[in-house]
Design brief:
heterodimer, A: alpha+beta, Sufe protein. Chain: A, three-stranded antiparallel sheet, 17% strand, B: alpha/beta, Aspartate Aminotransferase, domain 1, Aspartate Aminotransferase, domain 2, 2 domains, seven-stranded mixed sheet, 11 helices, disordered C terminus
Chain lengths: 160, 391
């Protein structure tokens, strides 16, 4: 019917965690300057874990679905694990997005990482990366091979 | 969701082929295989079909058959008009004047001529309703202007341009005037005897004809250089073996459209106005785009601040409605439409554009169903985006 997976449509029509944590322990936004879409994610952190993550998105189907899926993925994870979530994980949760919509997953991840950094700024310590700890990778940095990505067979080895 | 439960409200993108058209085309495909250029019976039979269609198209425009050049559609007609006129220029003439709300087939062609052949291009701004004024056009003309191209009805927001007045101003100065009338031919009266226009683009699939065929009206005496070389068909202005079935389909579609125009325009205007009234009443902060009255009878277009057009289209599709945001050709691209931006609507509001275009098959029940389905979708998307201005 349309170009989206059933999972993406489900997140679009019944988005999880819409809204804002008030007051938040961390708040981050990211935008896609090429289309004007933007997402804001607010989080509450309890005992080093993301206890609650909520989002607001002005954007297309993919942007809304990505933010919804990412807040689900982040909730309950340690701050460090949440910071390691990548666009790949969002795409995996959605069963993929049309290729030109993949930047929407990047935008959601950008907003979450900004929120996690904000936790560190607000608390002055600890948070995701600790004082002097490494910054989270920028979402555009290439990620190592991930488990589900290997379902694609290497060129020349598959059945035709 | 099966096709029978769908509501198609995107007639500006394309229209379903009318049964009379499909039947006439099928007959041609079955029974007339000749090449219209061949001298024997089969060829002459095909030639008769093409010429009949030519006369039908000409009659609907108030033109004569020799002024109709069949093309592969609106885009080719626009390209032939702009490139063909520019190639036929004389002396130091190099100016092209057009508007910011033209279809890409005109705007991008004009820009290409500017970049590659050094045409001096003037792109006129439009007012908040999408209109360009005659005085703006005349102020942009100079002794080196070759061509003015102003569309008749806008494909996105439906605004009609004052092309009769613009044409008169061009004629008074000896400047060739082209109008892309792809959205209006078949929908509103278009008579080249009363509109001083030299070149008119039209496209069959916008008025219940087949895709892949259109025409350029070329007023007798208009200087035009062909873009293609070959066997010399269409009086050398568009060479290539004629798309006989498509041309016959165009002719029948044109005739049927002319027969139904008056009653359909009135009926569709009512449906359009019901959409306006219903949406404004039910959706807070709905912004009508385009001119309130000087607009296509079938076009109701809006911006809904706090929503994004693609999300509106997908959400409505899931509920059985085919609609569009921005123009169909660019909906793969999430950039706001150049037309909506040209109206002076701010970028973020322009992102929430929605175009509803009714047609022959649209019923009052279809419109009421849309009026039920749309408000909760806008409300849901706004609750997700939670635009501060709307809270």
């Amino acid at each position: 019917m349309n170009e989206y997976t059933a999972a993406a449509i489900d997140h679009f029509t019944s988005p999880r965690n819409v809204g804002a944590v008030d007051p938040p322990d961390g708040k981050g936004s990211d935008a896609n300057p090429s289309c004007g879409d933007r997402t804001t994610i607010t989080i509450r952190v309890d005992d080093g874990r993301v206890a609650e993550a909520r989002f607001r998105t002005f954007g297309c189907t993919a942007a809304i679905a990505s933010a919804s899926a990412l807040t689900e993925l982040a909730t309950g994870r340690s701050v460090e694990d949440a910071a390691a979530l990548a666009p790949f994980d969002v795409l995996h949760a959605l069963g993929g997005l049309p290729s030109r919509k993949e930047p929407c997953a990047l935008m959601a991840v950008g907003a979450l990482r900004a929120a996690l950094l904000d936790v560190r700024v607000r608390t002055g310590e600890g948070g995701a990366f600790g004082p002097g700890g490494p910054l989270p990778p920028h979402p555009t940095e290439p990620q190592g091979p991930r488990e589900p990505a290997q379902t694609k067979s290497a060129p020349g080895t598959g059945m035709r | 969701m099966n096709a029978a439960t769908r509501v198609y409200l995107d007639h500006a993108a394309t229209t379903p082929v009318a049964p009379e058209v499909a039947e006439a085309m099928a007959r041609v495909l079955r029974e007339a295989h000749g090449n219209p250029s061949s001298a024997y019976a089969e060829g002459r039979a095909a030639r008769v079909l093409v010429d009949q269609a030519r006369e039908e198209v000409a009659a609907a425009l108030g033109a004569s058959g020799s002024e109709i050049v069949f093309t592969s559609g609106g885009t080719e007609a626009d390209n032939l008009a702009l490139r063909g006129t520019f190639a036929a220029r004389k002396g130091d003439a190099d100016g092209i004047v057009t508007t910011a709300v033209e279809h890409h087939a005109v705007l991008d062609t004009a820009q290409d001529l500017a970049e590659r052949l050094h045409a001096r291009l003037v792109v006129l701004p439009v007012d908040r309703q999408g209109r360009v004024s005659v005085s703006q056009v005349t102020a942009a003309l100079d002794l080196r202007t070759v061509l003015v191209s102003v569309m008749h009805g806008n494909n996105e927001v439906g605004t009609l341009q004052p092309i009769a007045e613009i044409g008169a101003a061009c004629r008074a100065r000896g400047v060739t005037f082209h109008s892309d009338a792809v959205q209006t031919v078949g929908a509103v009266p278009f008579d080249v005897a009363t509109i001083p226009v030299d070149l008119v683009s039209l496209n069959a699939h916008k008025f219940y004809g087949p895709k892949g065929v259109g025409a350029l009206y070329v007023r007798r005496g208009t200087r035009l250089v062909t873009l293609q070389t070959g066997g010399g068909q269409e009086r050398g202005r568009r060479t290539g073996t004629e798309n006989v079935a498509g041309i016959v389909g165009l002719g029948v579609a044109m005739r049927v459209a002319a027969e139904r125009r008056a009653s359909e325009a009135e009926r569709q205007t009512r449906l359009r106005d019901r959409l306006f009234e219903g949406i404004v009443a039910r959706v807070p902060d709905a912004l009508l785009t385009g001119h309130p009255t000087q607009r296509l009878p079938n076009n109701a277009s809006f911006c809904f601040p706090g929503t994004q057009g693609e999300a509106l289209v997908v959400a409505l599709d899931l509920e059985g409605f085919a609609v569009s945001s921005g123009s169909a050709c660019t909906s793969g691209n999430t950039e706001p439409s150049h037309v909506i931006l040209a109206l002076g609507i701010e970028r973020e509001v322009a992102q929430g554009s929605l175009r509803l275009t009714v047609g022959r098959d649209t019923t009052e029940a279809d419109v009421e169903a849309l009026l039920e389905a749309l408000p909760p979708i806008v409300a849901r998307l706004r609750s997700i985006s939670a635009e501060p201005a709307l809270r």
